[in-house]
Every structure is written in C-alpha cells, then in structure tokens.
Amino acid sequence: AAGSLGLSRSAHAAGSDVIKVALVGAGGRGKGAVNQLMNADENLKLVAVADAFQDNAEKAVQQIGKAHAKQVQVPPDQVFSGFDAYKKALATEADLVVLATSPGFRPIHFKAAIKAGKHIFMEKPCCTDAPGFRMLMETAKLADEKGLLVGVGLQRRHQPNYMETVKRIQDG
Fold it and tell me: What pTM does this model have?
C-alpha cells in the first residue's frame, strides 16, 4: 500500500538515503502499514512508536522487529504511550509519520504532524465528521505550502493490476 507512493524517492532527509519513520497508532493496521513500508524499501527505518496503550506500542516494536530486524531502530525511550504519545513521536527525528489511530483522532494528529514538518502516510478514513473534514482540508493546504508529501491508504487505486482493470472497463 504505502510502498507505491514513491516516498522513498522523494521524502529523504537532507543528505541521507534513510527515511526515518514514526508510527502513531500501533494496532493491527498500523503494524501492517509499517510492515508494508519496510518491504518497499530497505532504507526505511522505524525510529519511534506511539500508541494510547503501552503494551500495543511495545508489541508493535517486537512484531515489526521480527520481520525487519535491520530496519527497526526504536530505543526504549522512543516508545510512547498515552493520549499525548503522538506529540512525543512527532518530536523525534522521524521524516515520515504513519497515522493509523482511530479515525476520529486523525485530523488532530495530521495537523500536528504537518505543523511539525513531517511527511505523512495515513490510513482511511481520514476523518469522521464535518469539523474533522474541515480541519483535514485546511491542513492539506498547509502541507502543500510546506512541500510535505501526504499519502492515504487507498492502495487499490495505486495497484497496477487494479488500474489496468479499471482502464479496460472504461475503454469498453
């Protein structure tokens, strides 16, 4: 999913081929998204994990580390928990933040991440109500102004075989 965004070609930190990743929301979808990122490019390194629950954050580091030991570089002081854990993850040296918390929190986390100067991959849905949608749209403008990349988990829209099937249908 996230690997098809081309972030590895355009979201590098200045002077480095390594993209440092922070995960915010360490449940099943968050772990899955980070695993997919790690499969996409060996120069992606997980450096921070944040979740409302400490055990979720710790398990995510362990589970992702089993599959991608060389890419998981999360020291214990970069594993955050609580409702403000996302702020701590955003204060790290991460270049890219994966937002995979419950969608009601997504607009707030998205806004904070863009203000912190981070590139974003966020899962869908991106919001759950009209105020969240307005915040999301305002933040997207700010991301554009800052030149930050934002990708959303609409993986099928990026899958070559899916795009080919849609094209064939449209072409009759």
Answer: 0.83
Nearest to 122 by CA among 10, 11, 25, 6: 25
CA 16 – CA 43 distance, rounded (Å): 10
**Phi, psi values for residue 157, rounded to 5°:** -70, -15
Strands 150-152 and 119-122: parallel
Sorted by sequence, the CB contacts under 8 Å of residue 155 that are 6+ apart come out as 1, 2, 4
128/136 Cα distance (integer angstroms): 11
In tens, the pLDDT along 127-164 reads 999 999 999 999 999 999 999 999 998 766 667 888 88
Residue 77's Cβ-count burial label (10 Å; 0-12, 13-18, 19+) is exposed
